[in-house]
Predict the structure.
Amino acid sequence: MANTKQDVSLAICGHAWHGKSTLLGKVVAESGMATAREIEEAKRLASEGRDHSLVFAQLVFRSKDVHIQDSEAARGITILPSIVRFDFPDHRVTVIDTPGQETYANNRFFGMFQADCAMLVVDVEDGLRPITYQVLRILKGFEIPLHGVALTKMDRVRYEEEAFEARVDELRRACDEYGVDASRAVFIPTSAYAPGRDLHEAGEGISSYKQLTWFKGPTVRDFLRDLDFRRIVPQDLPLRLLIHGSEVYDNVPGIGKAATALVETGVVKPEQTLVFEPLSAERNHQVTARVRSVQLTKGHIATPGVPIEEGVPRQLVGVSFRALSEKDSLRELFKGRGVIAGTADAPPRVARRMMIELTVFDPETMLKVGDEWTMHPHVDRVAIHIDRIEAKRDLQQGPWEPTQDELLAPGEWGRVEVTCVTRPVAIEEAGTLPALSKFVVRKEHKAIAYGRVVTILE
């Protein structure tokens, strides 16, 4: 049996030009993940007039063409979320570098939506800016735990402890105002690059400290190494196995019927009997199968992987099945939908009508009673009808106020009753399984809102 690692996804987020990509790129360089050739190429680009502080950001944009002058990599800005993975002995951290410009709010939202936890990046001199507050709203709206805050560009305040502490106090007050729990967050002073510093020289707070001798906490590298998965995903939750309809196979050599799946909570192991939703609700009887084997996979199970004893939370696995209760092929059965599997004693929840909390972040769109939009929870999508708006609250996450309004303006939060139009959807309540209560709303192929399910009404 192969050793397994748990995956933790961490969103790095904050205002534009506060140094998110530069910070992450410096961690890449100091972790030995960047080749000398990559660093020298970045230095050459910098010598041609590119901002020297963006040299390390190029390492995050390594899959993007830095030679095209108008590209995001060449301009040093993040447009699409970038992914960097760090391997540690007991876990793997997937860092999602999210955009900081308001223009790319949709991309920032999608990057954060899939994260288990977050690190906020704030320029210690510039302080809290509009996107900083927007990030706090998203963290609260999705209940994404804030585990770290990096105060960047400490060289600009001469590495002074007083400047760091003043900004930490301000950030804690902002978190309290927006309802974000900062009690578990580690505040880290950093300086990835400073004018005159050799590009090969270690930064401050990345993997070591030289100037910041007064700080006794972890470096960013230590923070990633010490991320405690058990604090992020509770270990006593029921099994929820997310299966995408396009990753289902009827005849994988040697194992037969199989699917690629993400273990969201619980564990999946051979000989378990699984119940599939919303298939069971659609057919008015339980659709079941037994787990034949669980295998490691790098993204698909079209060919067999390495057998493991069990799949653990946030692990992408291949699961093969036997004793399927239906006569349909597995591919036809799962086609056109995302499926959640659980055990018979704790099956996934299913909703036809629900109360949701959401906010419209698209500035050109208003939610109207009577609209039909598309909800995207986890790996599924379903049409929903807006039945009524029960209550509203303002941007600062104030108290809910009952309303008779039939419109929800961009930026407002609404508690809204909706009905699934075409079929039921497998989804959970925020108070029970928060990760599976989240959703994105689209209108005409454009992301316009996000939120979570608070109550399944039917």
Observations:
- The first helix runs from residue 20 to 30.
- The chain has three domains: 6-232, 240-343, 350-456.
